[in-house]
């Protein structure tokens, strides 16, 4: 009969996320992970597998509890244009408040791991496709409602918003300055309103 787990697996996974997020994949050792998770190396392997398997779970957990939660919250409670503005406003706030300058685990992994690891490259690319699809749905719905400009296609605006998000998260790791980050986002979001009065007229 298997012995019951003697630790909180959800809390341990959260600790692993923070460890990878703070140090990066390569610089994080199994010992680092076990210490941060408050468990032994043997318990780590029994519950989560090797470091690679744990990173896979940690990244998926991070995506669902950061982007996934934000996607559901904004898309279901706000008009499309407001959802996009709120999304970027929250990202700026999180970036400015991040005293550890961790940035975004997904973006960090895209830069560190994806270029030389086909499996993680595909996993990270799939999440970025999902983020782009969220932006595209918001833009398309906003254009249909007449609250977002049709000067650019929903596809191009979604790609522009995706690039802005990635650039913002990278920039914030070294310069988490509110004025800088808001100045990056402001003209991009203004594209949503460009020529809207003329289109309505």
From TrEMBL:
Residues 6-66 form the HTH tetR-type domain. It comes from Paraburkholderia acidisoli. SUPFAM superfamilies: Homeodomain-like (SSF46689), Tetracyclin repressor-like, C-terminal domain (SSF48498). Gene3D superfamilies: Homeodomain-like, Tetracycline Repressor, domain 2. Coiled coil: none annotated. Residues 29-48 bind DNA. GO terms for molecular function: DNA binding. InterPro entries: DNA-bd_HTH_TetR-type_CS, Homeodomain-like_sf, HTH_TetR, Tet_transcr_reg_TetR-rel_C_sf, TetR_C. This is TetR family transcriptional regulator. Keywords: DNA-binding, Repressor, Transcription, Transcription regulation. It comes from the Bacteria.
């Amino acid at each position: 009969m298997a012995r019951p787990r003697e630790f909180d697996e959800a809390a341990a996974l959260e600790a692993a996320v923070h460890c990878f997020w703070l140090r990066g994949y390569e610089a994080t050792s199994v010992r680092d992970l076990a210490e941060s998770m408050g468990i032994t190396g043997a318990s780590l392997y029994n519950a989560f597998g090797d470091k690679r398997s744990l990173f896979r779970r940690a990244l998926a957990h991070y995506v669902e509890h950061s982007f996934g939660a934000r996607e559901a919250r904004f898309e279901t409670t706000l008009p499309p244009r407001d959802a996009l503005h709120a999304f970027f406003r929250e990202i700026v706030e999180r970036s400015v408040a991040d005293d550890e300058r961790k940035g975004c685990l997904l973006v960090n992994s895209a830069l560190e791991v994806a270029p030389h690891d086909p499996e993680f490259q595909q996993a990270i690319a799939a999440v970025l496709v999902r983020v782009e699809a969220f932006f595209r749905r918001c833009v398309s719905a906003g254009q249909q409602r007449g609250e977002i400009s049709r000067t650019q296609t929903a596809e191009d605006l979604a790609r522009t918003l995706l690039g802005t998000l990635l650039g913002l998260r990278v920039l914030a790791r070294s310069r988490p300055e509110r004025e800088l980050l808001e100045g990056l986002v402001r003209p991009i979001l203004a594209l949503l309103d460009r020529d809207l009065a003329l289109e309505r007229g």
